[in-house]
Design goal:
Immunoglobulin-like; 6-stranded mixed sheet; NODB_dom; binds zinc ion; 2 domains; Polysaccharide deacetylase family protein; 7-stranded mixed sheet; transmembrane
């Protein structure tokens, strides 16, 4: 068995995959307060991603004004401090306070019209990820509007130029294409805002190791993915999870996600898994068993997946992913020693399904 240099008592466990953002038991987690007891060096920041606000034409990517206000009130009442993406790196008391980082992807006009006024009302910070090719077009904000939001304290991040599916490019062309797309977006940010954002959000949450490395080389400090989970000290800064908050999210579900604790699991590889030619995917994972109560729940596409056989801390699964869906999400939940729910997920991508 291969060993992984990840702290002391980490053990290999095997795997699965999934596609869901919901799980039984979240209501229980909602009732529990976040524990302030952390092991030395541990911290967590709750990261959320939104798209449209008060725009009922697109229910799956929309957050109603009523729901958003209720969520912001909840954050305020429950003692959360908001931070922008780049601020997280500079925090020195992450292990002491409850932090939330609100991100908004795509730069739709409805953010300025409906989302931002509510954030302003509650004094909550946010980071807007802009895909530069769409600016000034249709439902998207104009550069003047983005500049105005920036002036009012919204941090602007890079969400690519084209919002393309970079993994669809041939492997030999992919990185060059990603780099030229990045260069183009940076030129536009510089031209219209005077600055180049140094945090990134991958379109569709699709990326690979070479894209992560390139962003790092280009001076970026972090990049957000789209699998759900809690950002913590063991998170790769170029694969930061976010809980999706678009669609019909009840306040109970919102609270359960914000109160979720990180499940500090390491997978075999960084970023999304790509399905093999034969439709299978092998995932291995490891975590410190001593931090948890030992029971791990597996979900694939929202469905409970049979717990794999644990061979002395090693679980191996060879999963066959639905052939008709591009993105499948694999989720793991467990409880920690304080009896709080913990969460970890990852994307599994089927490149044969072209979007
Ligand atoms: Zn997007």
């Amino acid at each position: 068995m291969k060993t992984i240099p990840y702290g002391k008592v980490y053990k290999w466990i095997g795997v699965v995959f999934f596609t869901s953002l919901f799980f039984v038991g979240s209501l229980q987690a909602w009732q529990m307060a976040i524990s302030n007891i952390t092991q030395e060096g541990q911290w967590q920041v709750k990261t959320l991603v939104y798209h449209r606000f008060g725009d009922n034409r697109y229910p799956s990517t929309n957050t109603t004004n009523e729901a958003f206000e209720q969520q912001l009130k909840w954050l305020q009442q429950n003692g959360f401090t908001s931070v922008t993406a780049s601020e997280v790196k500079r925090l020195t008391d992450k292990d002491e306070k409850k932090y939330v980082c609100i991100t908004i992807d795509d730069g739709y006009k409805s953010f300025k019209e409906n989302g931002f006024p509510l954030l302003k009302k509650y004094g909550i910070k946010s980071t807007l990820y802009v895909n530069t090719e769409s600016v000034d077009w249709g439902d998207y904000l104009s550069w003047d509007e983005i500049k105005e939001l920036q002036t009012q304290g919204v941090e602007i991040g890079n969400h690519s130029h084209s919002h393309d599916f970079f993994l669809n490019k041939k492997p030999e062309e992919r990185l060059l294409y990603f780099e030229s797309d990045l260069d183009l977006s940076e030129k536009l940010f510089k031209k219209h805002l005077g600055v180049q954002p140094k945090t990134y959000a991958y379109p569709y949450g699709e990326f690979n190791a070479e894209m992560m490395t390139l962003l790092k080389q280009k001076g970026y400090s972090m990049a957000f993915a789209q699998n759900s989970g809690v950002w913590n000290e063991s998170t790769n800064s170029f694969a930061i999870p976010r809980f999706p908050m678009s669609g019909n999210v009840s306040i109970e579900k919102f609270a359960s996600k914000v109160l979720m604790e990180p499940f500090r699991v390491r997978f075999n590889g960084e970023g999304p898994f790509v399905i093999n030619q034969d439709g299978s995917v092998e995932i291995e994972l490891m975590y410190d068993k001593e931090q948890y109560n030992g029971i791990v729940n597996y979900f694939v596409n929202g469905e409970v997946y049979d717990k794999p056989k644990d061979e002395e801390g090693v679980i191996r699964l060879n999963l066959h992913v639905p052939q008709d869906r591009r993105r499948t999400i694999f989720t793991l939940t467990t409880k920690n020693k304080d009896n709080n729910w913990c969460w970890k997920s990852n994307l599994i991508i089927n490149l044969n399904v072209v979007e």
